[in-house]
# Entry
Amino acid sequence: MRATVQAFFHPPSSTISYVVYDRPGGAAAIVDSVLDFDGASGRLGTASADALAGFVAEQGLTVAWILETHIHADHLSAAHRLQDRLGGRIGIGARVAEVQTHFGKVFNAPLGPRRNGACFDRLFEDGEAFTVGDLDGEALHTPGHTPDSVSYRIGDALFVGDTLFMPDGGTARCDFPGGDARQMYCSLRRLLALPEETRVFVCHDYAPGGRSHAWETTVGEQRRANIHVRDGVDVESYVAMRAARDRTLSMPALIIPAVQVNVAAGRLPAPEANGAVYLKMPVNVL
Ligand SMILES: [Fe+2]
# Structure
């Protein structure tokens, strides 16, 4: 069944969030929402989340799911805030606990929900089914960029998170903790084995070559034209390309605030005695 998909582009992080739904007045899933954050001032903003919530209200949708494709390192998630406003269950891949454990150690976070997956309502195992109203959904574990990465197929639409970019953008980096280019290649081949007409929606687009931003493509188009993983590229060439390219990439500007908030589905740490909320900055750790 054809899903209706509305995209929302977030210029500061080049993230695309989605509302996917069966019909106006029906059920929806929100994929990879963004909570605005200015790293220099430490100020949060809700303009991006407000736009998603406004669309949901305008279309009369009931939010069934708020889905994360992985723990993002480049932007903060609005999942928790949107759940407060709109309801729905927050879902992520079951291997999120590995990412939480890693960053739990980095930030010396206490054991508990930020370390054991309990901040999320549903931890999807590979191949697990779910529904969005009349649309059938399936979570596909696609590790490589991060160990917890999942892609969600909802109806005929596939939300690939940070595995594939648009064909001229290639694929995402594999040098974050728990990332693995060889696993990524397997994940990519798995996605590219889906029916050619499957619509693919990417989580980031950096508009290479100065073209306009774009986020929708198909499995067939990726197989023909993806600069990193089109048909005919073997695993060894892919891994070598990824290793060389990843060495040139710097840390995302917001990785330190983002991972602290995103391991808890977008929740901030509890306020301190003076009522203010603080995030940590590890020195010489990352
Ligand atoms: Fe990512």
